[in-house]
Each structure stands twice: as C-alpha cells, then as structure tokens.
User: Fold this.
Amino acid sequence: MKILCVGEMLIDFTPVPDMKLTYTANPGGAPANVAVSCARNGVTAGFLGKLGNDDFGRLLKKTLEDNNVALLTPELTNDATTTLAFVTLDDTGDRSFTFARKPGADMLLTRDDVESVDFNDWDIVHAGSVSQSGTPSRDSVLLALKKAKACSKIISFDINFRDKIWSADECRGEVNKVLPYVDLLKISDEELDFVGGEQNIPLFMSENDVTVIVLTRGGEGARIYYKGEYEDVPAMKVTVKDTTGAGDAYWGGFLSSLLRQGVRSLDDITLEVLKTAGRYGAVSGGLCIRKSGGIPALPTLDEIEVFA
Assistant:
C-alpha cells in the first residue's frame, strides 16, 4: 500500500479564535495533506515537492518526518522562500486564502527531481492543480503523471482551484494537459465548471477516459460517479470549527481505503469498493473539520474506524 503525492507543501496561517488578526502557523498544502492523511491511515506515503531553506521549510520537513512520510526531495532550496497562505474563516468555518508566493519554493520542482523517482515503487500517484500554476513545477508535475501512467499506476488528481493564484481559464488549460493521464478525479461543487456542469459529468468521463469522479459537496456529502452510475455518500454530522484541509482529509481517507481494500489497478475497482471508500473519506473529513488547521487536524486510522 503505497502512495506518492506530488506538488506543494506550505504554511497555512490560520486565525486564532477570539483574537482578531492573530494567526498560528500550521503545515499544509493539498498534496502534502493527502500524504500525511494516508500515512496516518497506515499507508506508506511519499511526498515529491520543493521546500524552502528557511525556518518554515525546516518545519515542514520535520512534519513529514514526524508523520512517516518520505520526502523524495530532501535538499531544501535557496532559490525561493516557503510559500505562506493566510486563511480567513467566515461565520460557518468556511475558509478563503491569501497567498505570499512570488515565487514560492513549491513552484521550483524540476524535471530532474521527477527523473530521480522510480514510479514502479508506488501504487497510486496523486497531484493537484496548484502546483501547475507556476514554472518549472507545472511541467514537472505533468512529467510525473506521464511517467506514472507509463508504469501502469493509478493516477489521482484534485482540481483544487484557487482564484487568488490564477484565473479559471489558466487553470483549465493546465488541467486539460493532465486529464489524459488521470484515473481518479476529485472536484468540489465550486469546480463544476471545469467538467461542464454536473449534468455533463458522465460525458466528460467518457470523453477523457476518467474512471472515477468524486464530487465533494460540503455538508451535503459526496457524489461518486463510476461507469454511468453515481452513489451519494452523506457527510458526517459534526460541529464545524475549521474547514481547512477537509477535502484533503476526505481524499486521503478515500485513497487509503481503496488501498486497504486491495485496489492496485483499475480492474480492482467496483461501485461497492468506492462506496466503502466514500464512507471512510466522509468520516475522515468530518473528524478533520472539528479541529483547527490543516495537517494538525487530520485524523488517524484508529480515530476514523470508531465511526466508519
């Protein structure tokens, strides 16, 4: 059971409750969140991404080490500082972001970094669109997915659009480049335009040869599309404290469940397997949003199995 996550790791500055304009630094970044989530679920996890040679970069590196996630690019870069994301929460706990990233270290993943990886060592390779928003990382992520596909690995991708980083049209253009390699696609209800609307999902899957699409819908749960059918999986009912990392907690739980159920190729996937993974992901996401921060809030296997 092995997953490699490719892309960004950064610092989320999350608000301190009841203290206006006061923040605490938490490790985050969507692919890194998924890697840690999987590791906490007993899956062997690796992370391929650049960290800055600064105090925050060293904090992120230690976070991966403490969570038993292998960092495949251990040398910290001096060419840019670690990316910072300032999180704003509304009255419902939902979040928005402001980024300090001009450039950020996460944008500096190179082709040589990718070439150093043996993709035969991994069962699932996961990435997301944020790392496509700058160079050279966008080309490096595309290369990683191409190489993983050539090794017949399962490819997972999260559209994860952030409008403070780039426009929807720019993001769509880069996402379209990776779609030929994607097997499992995660989107939120805010990203339905990327697939032509919800009613267009079956056609989108057929045209792009995507095996599974999971549409996350916040408190309404998730809808899993597979072979012309879909299955609704309800969200876990909890008191929301902070939604930062909720989608990544869901996806880490979902992918971990697939691996724990013995999925090693697309032939191993069934609707029942996906439903089980969806329930597991729902619990993982639900437990995450009861706490503050990204990675600090990600639940463990033992915590999830109490409710799953």
User: Anything to note?
Assistant: Residues 2-303 form a domain with the UDP-N-acetylmuramoyl-L-alanine:D-glutamate ligase fold (CATH 3.40.1190.20). The mean pLDDT is 94.
